[in-house]
């Protein structure tokens, strides 16, 4: 391998500059990793007769005539050549470059590429790039016609064939060192890195680039997993409290009025092992809403408490923190609550309560604090913080997580819980430095939810929806009505196109439902993120108490809200939400003894992508399956997100959406390799990868 920083100077200054400016390629390594987008057969080059005006195209043709004229004001000479490929004629024009007359002579053949224009009724390439070649024998012609021609991501001034020529030049002068030991590759029937780089750029037949791609994908997958796992291992060099006393955990289990599911038991074990290891746990616990993550976390908290060490449970919002606090108090029961000195800490806590909590945290009397980011504030001191449980981490910034970690004496154990199922391939690509536990099984007693898409083509259909809501309420149940926006005004401000129909706004829907005859006599409530804390609390409390029949809301209810009597959910303009988000929302109903119904209202056209997503959601209740689908429809860029851009940019050929199996295999292999001394070549490969120079020349 050539080292990072090998400049493209061997191509000449001018070419090097265009690569830098137009494709952001500055080193030979980057150039050699500028892989073809696809391959053409020469026979498949565009015929002149089919040339698309306005696009960049390459043709092969023979020069049938050449003429040079002198035009005033246009740089002097104009050289015009006409080429034919047997299908039609194409004119080439060069201004002020009379010298080209020497090489562009009648009868010569070549490739010609450029942007197709039209000039006085004739197809024309102005200033095309070209490469001429001599006559060839029929055999050569056949081989030539069948040779796969790489098509590179290109620009009008750096056309594909120019890139090809430059790569050929660089390849000829580079030595590519192997990265993955041959035993590993040959076991998988993969070719080496050098061969792969050569064959992806200069295939002689289709199987050449197919083998090359397979090998390069494997290189990417393995190097990525090696660096992720190495990072994870580096966490393990930190010391953390050894939490190996299960006494209180067993007491807690006895106290619960249910048995842990098999899934939960497995995760309990995993966590127990982590906590007893003396190294900080970094574990992601994923499971659908209601799969019992919080009880699993509580059990872990017991392990810390048994050693008289502190835990915090962080929630993304005050409403959720409050709810966690209440449900944890119930789950613990009086004795354990007192023993743990359970405390709530949010920004809106009164000064007195806050002071008390702060004292209890500093003295170590409080062994479990539930709260929001207020727990990060500088005034908060912990006596001995050992475990941090984060609910729905994606709403916490990395900085905040670091801040809370700083609060511990030793490195705290960190358990992150998420109800948004992350497809495993994403999880090990984006979060490959965390261990992952998954609760796949829901505790018994969860009720099925029926989901239907309602296409709002007629007012009759819509009024049928409200009748359905009224029926649920008549049976003594409650309903959620979810809207994408809080107010209509906010949309007008942000809206750009006048033709767009504003999505349903909670405030307006609330007003209109109060007047809706189908819902006459029902108590309608309103909930959204702009209400202040007391208002939100009051609304949730009256909904929980059954004093509100229909709650119009935004997605503030997406996570954590537990109203067992709610059985109906109407989502307005459902196409405005993502699949995973809708699945989360739907998890708010069917939490009691009655089954639920979820109606997704949408105006989107049948067969549209939006309609397909909604139909998929109606047909599946498996959050993991849905998140995979979501990923497919949205593309991985969205999922990996901006902060994962580093990870993403290193992947040229590997697609987390399609190469899940390969990524899994690479992960296993990476673990195995890292359990011993890593071969030098791989260490080197990892270093290059971190520099963005994977498979560099
Ligand atoms: P999550 O945090 O994943 O949303 P919770 O831990 O809050 O789930 O559990 C949801 C509800 O299910 C709670 O009322 C909890 O007490 C109950 N629960 C958890 N595990 C079980 C189980 N194994 N069997 C029965 N109920 C359970
Ligand atoms: Mg929860």
From TrEMBL:
Keywords: ATP-binding, DNA damage, DNA repair, DNA-binding, Helicase, Hydrolase, Nucleotide-binding. Residues 475-632 form the Helicase C-terminal domain. The keyword Nucleotide-binding applies. Pfam families: DEAD, Helicase_C, RecG_dom3_C, RecG_wedge. Residues 274-439 form the Helicase ATP-binding domain. InterPro entries: DEAD/DEAH_box_helicase_dom, Helicase_ATP-bd, Helicase_C-like, NA-bd_OB-fold, P-loop_NTPase, RecG/Mfd, RecG_dom3_C, RecG_wedge. One of its GO terms (molecular function) is ATP binding. GO terms for biological process: DNA repair. This is Probable DNA 3'-5' helicase RecG. It comes from freshwater metagenome.
């Amino acid at each position: 391998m050539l080292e990072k920083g090998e400049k493209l100077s061997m191509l000449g200054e001018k070419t090097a500059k265009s690569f830098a400016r137009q494709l952001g390629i500055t080193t030979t390594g980057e150039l050699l990793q500028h892989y073809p987008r696809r391959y053409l057969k020469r026979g498949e080059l565009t015929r002149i007769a089919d040339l698309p005006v306005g696009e960049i195209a390459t043709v092969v043709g023979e020069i049938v005539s050449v003429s040079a004229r002198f035009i005033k004001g246009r740089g002097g000479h104009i050289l015009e050549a006409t080429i034919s490929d047997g299908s039609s004629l194409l004119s080439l024009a060069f201004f002020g470059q009379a010298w080209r007359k020497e090489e562009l002579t009648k009868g010569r053949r070549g490739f010609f590429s450029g942007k197709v224009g039209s000039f006085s009724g004739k197809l024309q390439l102005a200033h095309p790039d070209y490469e001429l070649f001599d006559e060839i024998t029929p055999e050569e012609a056949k081989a030539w016609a069948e040779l796969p021609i790489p098509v590179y991501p290109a620009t009008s001034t750096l056309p594909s064939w120019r890139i090809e020529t430059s790569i050929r030049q660089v390849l000829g002068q580079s030595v590519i060192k192997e990265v993955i030991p041959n035993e590993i590759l040959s076991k998988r029937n993969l070719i080496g890195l050098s061969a792969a780089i050569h064959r992806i750029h200069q295939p002689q037949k289709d199987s050449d680039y197919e083998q090359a791609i397979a090998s390069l994908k494997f290189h990417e997958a393995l190097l990525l997993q090696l660096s992720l796992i190495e990072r994870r291992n580096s966490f393990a060099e930190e010391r953390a409290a050894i939490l190996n006393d299960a006494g209180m955990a067993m007491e807690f289990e006895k106290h619960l009025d249910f048995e842990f599911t098999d899934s939960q038991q497995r995760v309990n074990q995993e966590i127990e092992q982590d906590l007893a290891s003396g190294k900080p746990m970094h574990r992601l616990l994923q499971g659908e809403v209601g799969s019992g993550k919080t009880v699993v976390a509580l059990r872990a908290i017991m392990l810390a408490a048994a050693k008289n060490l502190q835990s915090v449970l962080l929630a993304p919002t005050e409403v959720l923190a409050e709810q966690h606090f209440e449900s944890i108090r119930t789950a613990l029961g009086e004795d354990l609550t007192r023993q743990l000195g359970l405390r709530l800490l949010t920004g809106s806590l009164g000064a007195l309560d806050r002071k008390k909590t702060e004292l209890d945290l500093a003295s170590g009397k409080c062994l479990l604090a539930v709260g929001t980011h207020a727990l990060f504030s500088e005034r908060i001191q912990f006596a001995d913080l050992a475990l941090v449980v984060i609910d729905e981490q994606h709403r916490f910034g990395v900085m905040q997580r670091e801040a809370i970690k700083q609060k511990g004496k030793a490195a705290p154990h960190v358990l992150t819980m998420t109800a948004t199922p992350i497809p495993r391939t994403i999880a090990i690509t984006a979060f490959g430095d965390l261990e992952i536990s998954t609760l796949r099984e829901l505790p018994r007693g969860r009720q099925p939810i029926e989901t239907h898409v309602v296409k709002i083509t007629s007012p009759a259909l819509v009024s049928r929806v409200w009748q359905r809501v009224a029926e649920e309420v008549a049976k003594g149940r409650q309903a959620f009505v979810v809207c994408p926006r809080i107010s209509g005004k906010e949309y007008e401000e942000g809206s750009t196109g006048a033709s767009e129909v504003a999505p349903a706004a909670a405030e307006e829907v609330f007003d209109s439902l109060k007047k809706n005859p189908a819902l006459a006599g029902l108590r309608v409530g309103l909930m959204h993120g702009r209400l202040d804390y007391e208002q939100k609390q009051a609304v949730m409390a009256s909904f929980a108490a059954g004093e509100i029949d229909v709650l119009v809301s935004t997605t503030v209810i997406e996570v954590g809200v537990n109203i067992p009597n709610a059985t109906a959910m109407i989502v307005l303009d459902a196409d405005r939400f993502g699949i995973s988000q809708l699945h989360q929302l739907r998890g708010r109903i069917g939490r009691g003894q009655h089954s639920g119904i979820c109606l997704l209202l949408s105006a989107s056209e049948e067969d549209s992508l939006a309609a397909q997503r909604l139909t998929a959601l109606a047909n599946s209740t498996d959050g993991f399956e849905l998140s995979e689908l979501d990923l497919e429809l949205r593309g991985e860029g969205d999922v990996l997100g901006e902060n994962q851009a580093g990870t993403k940019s290193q992947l040229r050929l590997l697609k987390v959406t399609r190469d899940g199996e390969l990524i899994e295999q690479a992960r296993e292999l990476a673990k195995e390799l890292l359990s011993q001394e890593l071969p030098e070549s791989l260490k080197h490969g990892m270093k290059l990868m971190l520099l963005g120079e994977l498979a560099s020349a």
